[in-house]
């Protein structure tokens, strides 16, 4: 992780977005009837289900579709937009900026969780609100932003890696 100090963050961010590929994605923080939250394990990190918005697809539709595909569940209710996050990664030598729209969601059913292995997801699990330490200790800063917005964590600062 690195930080850039600038006099005007909005102007700088606008300039950066012009010069790199922007991918829009959508996903969700899903809660079940027991008050547990759904997380996926991908690329050796805990994450929330999300994925690219397809051409001519609405953001909310993409969020629900991605959650259902990646976890094998049925979303019973799409709630309010939580926030949007940005993160940068390199794909085939190209710098990509991913803008993700996050939504609160609910799932009622007793669906058997099924990780979408072709997307690199190796585990899908429900976590109690007060037992998400494994997530906090091994996730991405953008996921911490979502959890902070939903008041599941009070501190957005990531633990330092050893």
UniProtKB/TrEMBL annotation:
<keyword id="KW-0378">Hydrolase</keyword>
<dbReference type="GO" id="GO:0004081">
    <property type="term" value="F:bis(5'-nucleosyl)-tetraphosphatase (asymmetrical) activity"/>
</dbReference>
<dbReference type="InterPro" id="IPR020476">
    <property type="entry name" value="Nudix_hydrolase"/>
</dbReference>
<dbReference type="InterPro" id="IPR020084">
    <property type="entry name" value="NUDIX_hydrolase_CS"/>
</dbReference>
<dbReference type="GO" id="GO:0006167">
    <property type="term" value="P:AMP biosynthetic process"/>
</dbReference>
<dbReference type="InterPro" id="IPR000086">
    <property type="entry name" value="NUDIX_hydrolase_dom"/>
</dbReference>
<dbReference type="GO" id="GO:0006754">
    <property type="term" value="P:ATP biosynthetic process"/>
</dbReference>
<comment type="similarity">
    <text>Belongs to the Nudix hydrolase family.</text>
</comment>
<dbReference type="InterPro" id="IPR051325">
    <property type="entry name" value="Nudix_hydrolase_domain"/>
</dbReference>
<dbReference type="Pfam" id="PF00293">
    <property type="entry name" value="NUDIX"/>
</dbReference>
<feature type="domain" description="Nudix hydrolase">
    <location>
        <begin position="21"/>
        <end position="152"/>
    </location>
</feature>
<dbReference type="InterPro" id="IPR015797">
    <property type="entry name" value="NUDIX_hydrolase-like_dom_sf"/>
</dbReference>
<protein>
    <submittedName>
        <fullName>8-oxo-dGTP pyrophosphatase MutT, NUDIX family</fullName>
    </submittedName>
</protein>
């Amino acid at each position: 992780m690195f930080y850039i100090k600038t006099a005007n963050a909005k102007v700088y961010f606008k300039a950066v977005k012009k010069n790199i590929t922007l991918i829009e994605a959508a996903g969700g923080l899903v809660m079940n009837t027991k008050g547990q939250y759904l997380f996926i394990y991908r690329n050796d990190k805990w994450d929330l289900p999300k994925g690219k918005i397809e051409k001519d697809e609405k953001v909310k539709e993409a969020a629900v579709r991605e959650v259902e595909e990646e976890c094998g569940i049925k979303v019973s209710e799409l709630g309010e937009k939580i926030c949007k996050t940005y993160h940068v990664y390199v794909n085939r030598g190209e710098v990509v900026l991913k803008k993700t729209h996050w939504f609160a969601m609910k799932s009622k059913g007793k669906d058997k969780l099924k990780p979408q292995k072709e997307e690199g997801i190796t585990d899908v699990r429900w976590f109690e609100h007060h037992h998400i330490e494994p997530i906090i200790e091994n996730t991405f800063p953008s996921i911490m932003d979502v959890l902070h917005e939903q008041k599941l964590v009070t501190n957005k600062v990531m633990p330092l890696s050893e």
